Structure formats: C-alpha cells, structure tokens
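Cont'd.
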Amino acid sequence: MVDVATPATVSQSVSRVVVDLQSISYTYEGEGQPVLNDISFQVDDGEFVLILGPSGCGKSTLLQLFNGTIPHTLKGALAGEASICGHALTTTKVATFATDVGMVFQDPDAQIICTRVRDEVCFGLENLCRPAAEIMEQQVEALRLVGLDGFGDRSVFDLSGGQKQRVSIAAVLAVRPRLLVLDEPTANLDPAGMADVFVLLHALHKAGTTIVMVEHRVDELADRVSRVIMMDRGRMTFDGPPREAFSQPRAARSEEGDVVPVSAWFPQAAEFALALGTACGVPIQAKDMPLNVAEAVTLGERFIGVAAVMPSVPAASMSSPETTPLLRVQHLSFGYDRVEPILDDVNFDLGRGRLVAICGRNGSGKTTLARLVMGINDAPRKTIFLNGKDLSALGPKEISAEVGYVFQNPDHQFVTDRVWDEVAYGLTVRGYADDAIRMRVDEVLGIVDLARYAERSPFSLSLGERRRLSVATMLVLEPRLLILDEPTIGQDHERAQLLMGLMVRLRERYNTTVLMITHDVRLVAEWADRVLVLSRGRLLFDGTPENMFADEALLAAGGLLTPPVFDISRRIAAALPAGPVRPTLSVPALVDAIVKSRKVAA
Amino acid sequence: MRRSAVFQFRSGASFFHRLDPLSKFAWLVGISLLAFGAYIAWVQIVITGIVLFTALVLARLSPVEIWRGTWLFVIACTSFLVIQTLTLPGTHVAFRIAGHPIYAESFDYALASALRIYTIILSSLVFVRTTDPRELAIALVTQMKVPYRIAYAFFIALRIIPTIEDEIKTIGAAQAVRGVARQGGIAGRIREMKRYSMPLLVGSLRKASMMVMSMEARAFGAFPKRTFVEPPRMTASGVVVRTVTIAAVVAWYAALATGLVHTMYVLAPA
C-alpha cells in the first residue's frame, strides 16, 4: 500500500435539509428555452423521493444540479438559489460534493471506469486520498451491501446488467454519501435485475440513506418511496406523498408539445383503483389509494357484489393453420465458440399478422436470435426459413425486403441528412420509380406524424420523433416481419404506447408480424398475443402471455415478473373461487368483472 | 450476448498476468526492437517461437484466441511471403515452380519480413490481453512518476477502444439493415466513414461525457495526488524479464554493429 496522499478533510453538513432549491431556472448553453423553470423544493434527511415526468421534461437535468455538474461542468444560465448538503451550489466544486452525493446513471457501461469490480468500488475513495486500509475496508462493506460479496476480483465484462448496476451503486456507497441520486438506474435491466436494485434501494432507505430517483418503472417502487414529484416541461406540477400523487388522473405535455395522459406512469394498482372508482361511481380517497398488489386486492374485494356471476371465459385464439409459416426456426444453435453456445436448439414458427414478444434475462440470446433472423449474423444452413426459403441462401437485399429491424438507438440507422430522404432511402436503393417513392414516403410520413419535419435533419428531432422516423424507414418497405429491439428503453410509457399503437396499425394495414424484444412485462401483457421466453439460449416457453404469467417456475427461470393486474386478479379469484373474477392481464377486464357483479347484486 | 473484443484485457492467473505492466511493456518493446533489427529468417523464426511460447505457455492464451486475434495478419503475412518470394531477385535457385526460379535469398528475406509483422502483432496481443490498462496507468504514475491525470487519460483511451469498436459494429449492422451495402475501394470506404461518422460521433460524445461526469462525481482530479490501493510492483520475475530483454537487445545490436552476425540481407537486393 503506497502513495497515500494527505487524507481529504471531509465535513458532512449536519442540517436536516439535504437539498434546498429556491426558484431554480436553467437554460443550456446555446439554447433559447429554459429546461428548468422556477423549481423550488426541499428534501430532508431520510426521504426517498421519486421524480416522474415525460421524456424531455427536465428530470435528468434537475438531477445534475445535485452534485454541481450544473453549473460547473455543463455551462449555461442558472438562476435562483440552491444548496446541496449545506454547500452553496454555485461556489462549490463538483469534487467537493463527492463525499456527500453519490450519482448513479442510466447506463452502467458508460459510467463504470475500471475493468475489475474492486478497482471500480475503490475509485472514488482513492480520488479522495483516503488511506488504503480504510479504502479496502469500505469497498468490502459496499460490495456486501449490494449483495456482491466475493465479486471483487471479477471482471466487469463478465457481469450481467443488473450486477453492473449494483457495482455502480456500490462504487458510490463506498464513499458513504448522505444523498444517493439515481437517474433511471434500471432502464437497461431485465425485471429480475430491476427488482434486485429496488430491493437494495429500499434497504438503503430503511437504513437512513436519503434517495432522489428518476424512474419510469413505478409498480415495484410506489409503496417504497416517501414522496413523489411530478414534472412537466421544466416545471413542477405535483409534490406530495405517493397516495396523493396517484389519486387522480393527470396529464402532461410530451417533448413534442402534445398533451398526453400520464396514467401509464402510475402503478397499475392505482390505475386499477382509479378505473374501478370511476366505473362504480365511487371516488377513491387519496388515503385509500392502493400502491401495491395486496392493497389493490383488499380494495377490489370490497367492491365485489354478493351475487354469483359466471366469469367470462377468455376468447380462444383466432389462429388459423398456415401451410407455409412466415418464419420457421428449426434446430437453431449458434455461438461464437463451441463450448459456449448462445442459442441452443431453438425451434418455433411464426405466422402472419402476429404481435410476438421475446423475453428473457440479459444475455439469454434474444438479440442474437433477432440478429440471425435479420441476417446481421450468418445463420447456420437450414435452420431459419423465411417464407419457406433457407435464410442462409438469401442476400441482405432479399432479407431486408421482407424483414425490418428497428434498433434500440435510432441514431445508428440514419444515413442521410434529411428526414424525407431518410424514409426514401430504402426505396431508392431498391430501384423504385421517383413517383412511387414520392407517394409512399409522403404516405408513411403521414402515418408516423412526421410530415411537418420532412426537410429537417434526422439528428435534430426529439428522441420520440427519431424513434418514429426509424420505424418509418422500415415501414416504407412494407416488411412482412418487423423486429423491434427494446421499444421502451429510454422512453416513457406513453411514448412506448404510441409506438405500439403504430405497430398495431401496421399489422392491420399490411398484415405485418411484429417481433419485439422486451423486458417490459406490462407491454407484453397489453400488446403481445404470443410470447417466446429464452433462458441461456434455450427456448423455455412458446405460448400466450396468460399462460406464461401463470407459470411461476418459468418466470423465475426467465427473470420475469408478473404485471400487477395479473397478481391482483389472481389473488381475488383465489380468495373468491365462486366470484366473478378470473386471472386477467387487462385492467378494464378486471374492472368490468367487478362492476358486473355489483349490477347483478343491485 | 456479444463476442468479446479480441484486443481487450481479460483477467487471468498466468505468469504474464502476474507480471507487472512495465516489465511486460519492456518485453514488448524489446521484442519489437529485435524483430526490426533481425533481417535473417532463422533469427525471426527463433523470435516468433519465443513469442508463441510466451503466448501459449506464459500467458496461457488458447490457440483459438491467438487465431482470432491474428488471422487477418496471418493471411496478410502469407500473401506478403508469396508475393515477395516470387518477385524478389536472388542468386541461388532453391527450387522451381512451373519453371519459375525461387531464390533462396528471396525466400529468406520474404520469410523474415512476414514473420516480423506477425511477431509484432502477436506480442501486442499478448500484452493487451494480459495487461489491465488501469494497472499500466498506475505503474506509469507510481514507477515512472507520470502525473496521474495524464496516465488516466491514457487508460481511459485504452478502456474506451472496445466500446467504440462495439459502436462501429452496431452502426454497420444497423445501416446494413437499411440496405446499405459494404463498399470496397478507398472512395467507398470514405463514403462509408462519412455515413458512420455522425452516429458514431453522437454516440461516442454521449458516452465520453457520461464517463467524465461519472469520474468527476467521484472526485477525480480533486487533489494533486491520489491513493493507489495495491499498486503493481516489480517482482523478481519482472527483474528477470527486464534484464533478459535488455541483454538480448543490447547483445543483438552490438553483434550487428560489430559484424559478428551475418548481415548480408540487411539491405535487400535491388
């Protein structure tokens, strides 16, 4: 142990107020409009604050104030007074906040500096010139806290997404910060990884850590936070306890300025209660608003009528036998080396006009499977058949005429400087006539609501618009199969819902099959008519979402969780076997069943 | 799940993994100097043998890893060997192929040139695969007294290479899906780079700024010095490696300078 510099003098403020923002407004350098507008609030010691709002509303910008990144690293016009852990924001350097504030960002790969777990956890303490013996002690403690005992010597490249994010949290916890700030820390994680992170944050909060967090996935968080702040276009629109936050329908403006309902940010337990209250004409008081499954079950049982009702039986699948499936995968095994196959004997068929989800843990082989179907990776011979033809014998142009692929990051796919040209590109390289190109491009730009931006650069659009443009570039080719890679990552639920609505229109219009790789169980429950679950390269399940969510062993193996509405309906059905409720994935269906029982009773 | 980058550190417990970074760096520089200084095939064969032994035994790289890291260069070096052997003039005909004379001097020179390139690539692979860039940066600070901000800039540059490599692959795949064909020739490659540049720039800037924020948020650069937990130290094995390498380089160049070794092919026949 050498090279120990003079230990830094660390003085944590003793005031109970951890964050104190007074009339904060901020405009990015070179921008005209402020991204934060007259924000004022305080956070006290021991609070767990959840910040919600549509993409582009200023949530992440707000977090960057908490350790002085704004205004010291990101320049711009900052107005108002701010104090974090007793330090005045404008006169305190970012490094000084390092002992008080721990920042965890969305993408663990972008924030992890070192290649070995222990080195990453030690990094901050080394910078603070703490003695080596103390550093080693604290890194062991931090890794224990996040459940990664014994991981010190592991390479970060060998960890799953959830483990990497836990390393990121350990790296900031090692410094023992007073305030933990997290910006969508579970965005890239599978449901099991997300649950691990939320359990950890809950434990840290109970142990006294103050937490401020931006997150879109609220179902597992709503009953764990002490306070909710909602934002809309740089302003605070709500600040209060979670039951009150979710006690009434709310709306906000999207990045593009459209008014959108924000029920999808709500925990599904609260969404169910609001719908039930409205349908029964009985307003639910804020104090009765359920935040988890158990509370929603209690509320639901209270509303059920006494008379017996025949539960509605789900409609049978409308699938019709097809002689030649659109896609046939048979005995597909694939790997970069023989000892570690990424896909192992995968078999399934896909018909036309379906909306199919592929689920599984990070690293289970989902993206590899999709890349093989798209021809990005070379498929082994006679393992994938597209319209009855062996995919390995088809060229990129033949495959892309039938299959479209929308990448996670839309920027990767843009090849021109103009929105109109971008949509026209695929048709141009396939030799379409100018008139036909003009007609189809104009039609598709209308469908995705981007006609008004036809002359702009693709890179100048908002994230949601870029995502729609990326879909439009595929849509214009009228693919029979469209693959969506993680449609909800980096987007709020409303935007994801809009995208899925677009997919349904595409299916209706062109009979396209949509294959989406996703971790979002609510999206699967709401939109998919079939699910494939992969685990360690093997296809564990191929069936309906209802059957998947009913199989607990499968959910554990696939790192999946059930959507709350399924748990609520299942528990009510179990408690009242002769009652009107059967397990369902739909909030309206559950509400409808309860309402019918009340009408019969009346 | 993706194939890991070939030129990327992988942790391990081999003799070379345990060696301190600067001793490995000295070995890499020594091998390069010897390879550049040796224009005779048998000497190059010996150097290549030493590097292969190091890769397989001392660094415990598998033949598959070595092949994945060097196959492109094996093809290039083999082409180089064939072309030079067929085209360079000589005086002693070793054998004939379809009546065409193959000269001993040409083959000797071509083999030495091809092996030189391969040796340097293989030794670089051994170094990169067994050396944690962070340990190299720390060794530069603790043993060479390089300021830690500069050493870490070097480390981050090495650390980000696999990320950029991944990003380029993703952009290539994403654009291929659009029907953009890979283009050959210099003009084609320039057009391809132009198309890649904007998404790559946007993505890399975003990742780099995230990394900077992550470092600053953890007090990087706050003090003129920092603590290094468990800095790499030069062990007895490191002393032996450095001594043998320096001795070999000095001996070889001294022998060349004094004419003790055959230098007939130092200047290639015109």
